[in-house]
Design goal:
Rossmann fold, N-(1-d-carboxylethyl)-l-norvaline Dehydrogenase, domain 2, two-stranded antiparallel ribbon, 10 strands
Length: about 290
């Protein structure tokens, strides 16, 4: 099907990034969140990122203004999805929250709309089952930061049909992303490899194998990662990483995915990374100062 209008559920770091790239590709976008402050923050981030593009000469101010104007922030869920051809959900990785949201979306969306979840770990089939369109429900996993990262991981649920896959491939290409198609499994492909690697980095810190800065530098230089695993954890959010690790253990029944005690303790302390100001680095300083454990 041809997609012209997109609803993005969530205005956080993933949601506003998805709204940004969709609007930049010419789509009309409604970005929905539950509080005005979240919408204001999301719109401010999009404006800031577009401004960075203008400064670098990648677009004119007029082009940036037109892109921003194509994103409509909205609080009402029904209003956000009622005429959308594609609904992309980018809300927190909490199963009940996602299931409840999709039930609401199903009741308000058109019968033709395609549903896509940006989940990084949760079952597409499980979410599709609470709707009446399992054949048009799919995983569309973006990577952070969305305007920069080139990958979209497409995940088929048990009933996802080929037309839905083709639709999402076409949308992904239009917004400038490359795609990989994977079968449904916890963590899909990328996070199934990444999450244990990040966990192991925290185990190494917990055991005093290296300092935060030395471990990050070692992985960057030795494995050619663009950022170290601890910096990446702070960027992703330690609470999100912990949730995914716990979900993996529950789904795989395999202790190799277990979260380190240090990660759990940091989340309990409210050290969630960049969004809280402290994680494996202290972001109250510039540049951020590595923490000592």
């Amino acid at each position: 099907m041809e997609v012209k209008k997109i609803a993005v559920l969530g205005a956080g770091q993933m949601g506003n990034g998805i709204a940004h790239v969709c609007a930049q590709a010419g789509y009309e976008v409604k970005m929905r969140d539950i509080e005005q402050k979240f919408l204001d923050g999301g719109m401010a981030t999009i404006k800031k990122n577009l401004g960075r593009g203008v400064t670098k000469g990648k677009m004119t101010q007029e082009e940036a203004d037109k892109i921003l104007a194509r994103v409509k922030p909205i609080l009402d869920l029904k209003e956000a999805v009622k005429d959308a051809d594609l609904v992309i959900e980018a809300i927190p990785e909490i199963v009940k929250l996602k299931l409840d949201t999709w039930k609401e979306v199903e009741a308000a969306a058109t019968k033709q709309a395609v549903f896509a979840s940006n989940t990084s770990s949760i079952s597409i089939t499980q979410m599709a089952a609470v709707t009446k369109r399992a054949d048009r429900f799919i995983g569309m996993h973006f990577f952070n930061p969305v305007p920069v990262m080139q990958l979209v991981e497409i995940i088929k649920g048990q009933a996802t049909n080929d037309d839905t896959v083709s639709t999402i491939k076409a949308v992904s290409a239009k917004i400038g992303k490359q795609t990989v198609l994977v079968k449904e499994a916890p963590g899909f492909a990328v996070n199934r490899v990444l999450v244990p690697a990040m966990n192991e980095a925290v185990f190494a810190i917990q055991e005093g194998v290296a300092t935060v800065e030395d471990l990050d530098l070692g992985i960057k230089l030795g494995l050619n990662w663009p950022m170290g695993p601890l910096t990446l954890l702070d960027f992703v959010g330690l609470d999100t990483a912990l949730y995914i690790a716990d979900y993996f253990v529950e789904e795989f029944k395999d202790s190799k995915y277990r979260a380190p005690a240090l990660l759990r303790k940091m989340v309990r302390a409210g050290w969630l990374g960049r969004k809280s100001g402290k994680g494996f680095y202290d972001y109250s300083t510039d540049p951020p100062k590595p923490m000592r454990f």
